[in-house]
Prior knowledge:
Elements: H1 6-13, H2 23-40, E1 41-47, E2 50-56, H3 61-75, E3 80-86, E4 89-95, H4 101-111
Antiparallel strand pairs: 1-2, 2-4, 3-4
Helix pairs in contact: 2-3, 2-4
Amino acid sequence: MPTPSREGLIAATELPIACSLSATDLSARLEEMADVGRASLLDATTTHARAKLRFAAGAGVRERVEAVVAAESRCCPFLSMRVSDEPDVVVLTIEAPDGAEPVLAELVDAFRARSRRQGSC
């Protein structure tokens, strides 16, 4: 039996860059992100494939951000998302694999309550 190559193992574990949400669910998800952003987003910085969003800590903010992360993890498992705390701030860090930069930008724009394109997660 042949031994799989390292490249074969990597390729087998990479997740496809695709969102599993329906158009209706996507619209609701983007609106929830916009609501969280309008309520508490302080700033967002994006580099090539990484975004750091900072939210004013307040009643329910961390829970709302965590709920978005949990939901996004189910429909877009190719993204790496982490919620952490700084003094009076909830921080969401999102990392995208090569090729998923447009999805990352879409998520950041959703939290910023900017215009959104249909069809991306």
